[in-house]
Design goal:
90 residues; mainly alpha; 0% strand
């Protein structure tokens, strides 16, 4: 009786391991995933920096107020983008 239960448990665990191996992500898939994360993070940051710099150049004198604020906003948007992307696809 115990021997039969043990065999079923081993067979079930073996099937689970085989299924996990079939569903494992390849190195290429992981690289693409990390590349997507970096683009989702960097693009809002750069857009904020360029837009802020342009807005600062429209005024008189030297100012970095818009640049700093929009870089911080871009950073926050990038973090949210990465967070929601990981929740959806990981």
């Amino acid at each position: 009786m115990n021997d039969e239960k043990w065999r079923r448990d081993v067979a079930r665990d073996s099937e689970r391991l085989k299924e996990a191996e079939r569903n494992r992500r390849s190195l290429l898939a992981q690289t693409v995933f990390l590349g997507s994360l970096s683009v989702l993070f960097v693009v809002p940051l750069l857009v904020g920096a360029y837009l802020g710099r342009w807005l600062d150049s429209q005024g008189e004198g030297y100012s970095v107020g818009w640049t700093m604020n929009l870089i911080i906003l871009g950073l926050a948007l990038g973090v949210f983008n990465v967070y929601f992307f990981i929740r959806k696809y990981w």
